[in-house]
Amino acid sequence: MKISRRNLIKLSATTGLTAFTASAFSPLVGIVNVAQAKPFKKSKVKPFNFAVIGDAHLYEMPDHRFDKTLERAVSDVIKMRPKPDFVVFIGDLANFGKKKELLKGKRILDKLTKAGIPYKMIPGEHDWYLDLGKAWKELFGSPFWSFNHNGVHFIGLNSILVEDYWTARDLTPWERMLAIAELECHICGLWGVGEKQLQWLEEDVKNLSPDTPVVIFTHSPLWNYYPRWNFQTKDADAIRQILSKFEKVIAIHGHVHQVVYNKTGNMVHIGNLATSWPWPYPPVELPYPEIVMNRADPGDIYDGVGFATTYIDDTFLGLFKYKEWADLIPEHLKNGISL
Predict the structure, then answer these.
(1) Are 214 and 222 in contact (CB under 8 A)?
(2) DSSP-derived 3-state class of residue 13
(3) What pLDDT score does 189 carry?
């Protein structure tokens, strides 16, 4: 059954229905609408837009094709009207964590700042394990943060921390990096945010009212999508518990290079596209909503990749648009899905 946005809001307010709808209106625009059970009685939110870019995986070599796709994403964001209030880059700017790769990415992202669009960063595992985050932190500062914007509380966490797997094996920094760069690293273990960030997060939200709208960014999902590929965060349960007091939380993650979403309790999870390449879906049947991207055309560097924009209105209804550059959304999803 198709439900209009206005009727959905009305229905939610009168019946207590919590709805999560996803729709794609064209081959080039994939949309996820997130509606909560009841609108805020007195809205704290002033509507605004922001953009999400991630998983660029830049190489040191000049004029690599991944340079072109990140540059296109940045160019598209700069051309957006209205201009987004800010951009969040959600990890894996570099492919091997080399400072030259990170500097190249910073030069491209700094075009946003020059256009009057600030950006925030969180790291991915590809940014981190060559030097354990030294170069990344020199360039971008703290890997976890929070800020308030137009009535919404935003949080970024470093979700790719693992126990030391390199010292006992006498691995060089390069060997350490190559190990965790594998999609399925058998020696690395599951990654997460760690106790320090959990304590920081608890303190960060301690005095916030339960009706505060919250958006959280992590590189890896805050739900157990496919742990074998580290499509998970091992202390996600603790993060969700800390944020469980809020009426609704939108969690946006990268790492999976796919169109994917889920809902756990008060938290809606949305996976972002990469600007580099699309990962295949896990080779098993999983209980997540059925959005499966078309296979990418290897001859088209823009197929299966892109970025996202998000509009937050005064009732904290999030409109998440995938900005992909080719025919990504399957035919049976183009008219939308109501769940």
Answers:
(1) no
(2) helix
(3) 92
pTM for the whole structure? 0.86
Burial state string for 162-178 with b = 16 or more CB within 10 A and e = fewer than 16: beebbeeeebeeeebbe
Name residue, tokens 């951009």: 87
Structure tokens at 145: 């943060």
Task: Identify the DSSP state of 176.
Answer: H
Residue 196 CA to residue 88 CA, distance in Å, equals 22
- CA distances for 152 relative to 222, 316, 318, angstroms: 20, 8, 12
CA nearest 51: which of 141, 101, 112, 93? 112
Closest CA to 30 of 339, 315, 331: 331
Question: Which residues are CB-neighbours of 279 under 8 A, at least 6 positions away?
Answer: 183, 229, 256, 257, 258
Name the stretches of the chain with pLDDT < 70: 1-42, 288-290, 328-339
Q: Provide the token pair at 66.
A: 């991944």
Q: Residues 239-296: pLDDT tens digits?
A: 999 999 999 999 999 999 988 888 899 999 999 999 999 988 888 888 766 677 777 7
**What CA–CA distance (Å, rounded) separates 136 from 185?**
22
What angle in degrees, to the nearest 10, is found between the helix axes of 99-114 and 65-79?
20
For the beta carbon of residue 273, count every other beta carbon within 10 angstroms.
28
Per the document, the length of the chain is 339
- Give the pLDDT of residue 329: 62
Is-contact 152 215, C-beta < 8 A?
A: yes
Map out the domains of the chain with their CATH numbers. Answer: 5-338 (3.60.21.10)
Whole-angstrom distance, CA of residue 267 vs CA of residue 153: 14
Half-sphere exposure of residue 285: CA atoms within 13 angstroms, side-chain side: 0
